[in-house]
Amino acid sequence: MSLMIMAWRNLIRRKLRTGLTVAGIAVGVALILVLLSLVAGIDVQVRSSIRSLGGADITVYNGTVTGIRQSFLFGSSATLNESLVGEIGNLPNVYSVSPESLEVVSADGALAPVWGIDPQTFDRTTGGLNIIDGRQLSVGNENGVVLGKELQQFLDLSLGDTLLVQGRPPHDANNVSLTIVGVYETGQNIVDRGLYVQRGVVLNLTDSQGTVTSILVKVNDPNFVSSVSDEISTLFPETRVVTPANIIAQSSQLLNTLTLFFATIGFVALVAGSFGVINTMLISVFERTKEIGTMKAIGAKQTAVLKMFVYEAIAIGCLGGVIGLLIGGFSSFVLSEFAGRVLPAVGRVGARVVPVLTLENLVPSFILGVATSTLAGLYPAWRAARMKIVEALRYA
Amino acid sequence: MLEHMVETLNLKKTYKKKKISVDALRGVNLVVPKGEVVSIMGTSGSGKTTLLNIIGGVDRPTVGEVKVDGVDIARLKESQLAVFRLEKIGFIFQFYNLFPMLSAFENIEFPLILAKKSKIEREARVWSLLEAVGMKDRADHRPDELSGGEQQRIGIARALANNPALVLADEPTGDLDSENATAFMKLVRQLNKTYTQTFLIVTHDPIVSKECDKIYMIRDGELHKSQ
Question: Residue A207's pLDDT is what?
Fold first, then answer.
């Protein structure tokens, strides 16, 4: 229809100006897409972490240091006394408990987290690891190891191969040769870059007999989770108790804050872009005063003039939206790659946020761009539609 | 009654700018019979463009009546006026006022699109008008690729697109040389014969007025019959 053709030709008549205006919208759309896709990526990461906490209903850590991160990075400095395992196991409504010792070691030269477990109680408490090749660790096989899928791929090892595991300073004199019996996958990056061994192996490597990093607890019935975790906190004040429920609550709160923060930034960028649209369209309306007067004199109704300019704004929005999606999609991957290198990762075992580009964030980013541009075009279009014919025709 | 295309009665128009008010029209009584070519002559500032704008429904009188093809247009609402202009009036402008980003063909087609004519109807009408103004081979040219005389031919064709009852022209030869002005008037007479449109032309060009059936003079907002 010819109003659309006119709108389109008016845009390409002023290529540079249109291009700059489109860029304003594209930047806003790109920013929103980057932020949405990264937040979605973080969401995926957090969900898989929660899933990979395993079947344990409650995990008990040393509560005198600030968090999992510390216990993970500095290993033995954040442990609990082994005797707690038995004491918690004797509490009412507790079905089973399993000790876990976490350290960072060198596996064939690559830094990797190692979880030392007691296979029998571990399986009963968590339901066991998700083995994709080979078998689980078994009781009595002291020198067996199961590798995370990513570590296995990274080291390019197969079942039956030998892996040399060495402690880190000051325990770097300790080492042990293990035989690969299985490969697991949890979907959580950092866990899949690690390995599981008998707990005794970890204790020997780090000279930390008598300690545990965490205690996994399964209760008789899911309804007892909160009462048992309250009881553990009360009886053993040196501990910190983590349940899937409180992790979910914490992380979703964090994600909401992140989303709100990012949405505000993106919105501000789009508002800035919308001023560009208003400015361009107003100039365009003034430039075409005589044309508008002629259109109306010939018999175009106000709505026809309004439509023509709104089509222009929509076209700017669509162009900006498409270009913004391309730029945003590209830069979200670049950004996550970049962030993955900058964030303090444990050697090569870095947690990387993979941006999630789905219709769920592509469509809203695009629509926001088009809507902003269209809204911004309404005022100039209204000015054009309301123009007095006699004055417009007199305009040189 | 209906043999008159335009009839104004005691038409007055006063412009108020700040504290000064200017009487552009001081009681104009104009009759334009159907099917005639009538010119209104006058110097600039005499009120002739104001009169034309009021008859064309783009301006409103301060006092008085305007009947065009039997309709009292002073009573029409803005949206009704747009329909009136689309269906009953064809405008020809001094500087042609063609849409620069549309081809000659599309310029003529534009009023037909506004009138919601089908594509087949539009194409047939545009080609016959291009033929009538002798511009068939220029259909795909943009206005800036056409000479002034050629642009004005497209301007006439556009004005005639919806077969209006009345064609209004404001200084149509004001930007043309005498050769093109003569050709323009020849075309007007020819179209007036074939399509029986009434033409009302505001001008101060004698080439135009000598081809008209009637000439009115306007001076200081008052109309005088000249012939």
Answer: 85
Give the DSSP letter string of B114-137.
HTT--HHHHHHHHHHHHHHTT-GG
Are A120 and A139 in contact by the 8 Å Cβ rule? The answer is yes
pLDDT of the residue at A129: 84
Write B75-83 long-range contacts (CB < 8 A, 24+).
B78/A302, B79/A301, B79/A302, B81/B57, B82/A296, B82/A299, B82/A300, B82/A301, B82/A302, B83/A299, B83/A301
Q: Are B93 and B75 in contact (CB under 8 A)?
A: no
Map residue A309 onto helix, strand or coil: helix
Determine if the pTM surpasses 0.90: no
DSSP character string of B74-114: GG--HHHHHHHHHHHEEEE-TT----TTS-HHHHHHHHHHH
Q: Pick from A372, A366, A267: which is nearest to A322 by CA?
A: A366
Rounded CA gap, A370 and A364, in Å?
A: 10
ipTM of the complex: 0.92
Determine whether the interchain pair B114/A304 forms a contact, defined as Cβ–Cβ distance below 8 Å. Answer: yes
Look at A187-191, B149-153, B197-201 and tell me which has the smallest mean pLDDT.
A187-191
All structural domains of chain B, each given as residue ranges with its CATH number in brackets, are 34-48+82-225 (3.40.50.300)
Neighbour tally for A90: CB within 10 Å = 9
Q: Please judge whether A304 and B97 are an interchain contact, meaning their C-beta atoms are less than 8 angstroms apart.
A: no
| Contact (CB, 8 A) for A181 and A141 | yes
The string of DSSP letters for A245-270 reads HHHHHHHHHHHHHHHHHHHHHHHHHH
Residue B77 CB partners (closer than 8 Å, separation 6+): none
Contact between chains at B82 and A390 (C-beta distance less than 8 A):
no
Q: Give the contacts of A18 (CB within 8 A, at least 6 positions apart).
A: A11, A12, A280, A316, A319
Contact criterion met (CB < 8 Å) for B93 and A1: no
Q: Looking at the partner chain, which of A2, A294, A300 has a beta carbon nearest the beta carbon of B106?
A: A2
Minimum CA–CA partner of B102 in chain A:
A6
User: Is-contact B98 B143, C-beta < 8 A?
Assistant: yes
CB A395 within 8 A of CB A285: no
For helices B148-160 and B178-195, the axis angle rounded to 10 degrees is 20
Residue to test with chain A: of B62, B97, B107, B117, most A Cβ within 10 A: B97
Sequence-ordered strand ranges (E) for chain A:
58-62, 80-81, 94-107, 110-117, 131-134, 144-148, 162-166, 175-184, 195-198, 211-212, 214-219, 239-242
Q: Do B111 and A1 touch (CB under 8 A)?
A: no
Which contiguous run of DSSP H or E holds residue B16?
A: strand B4-17
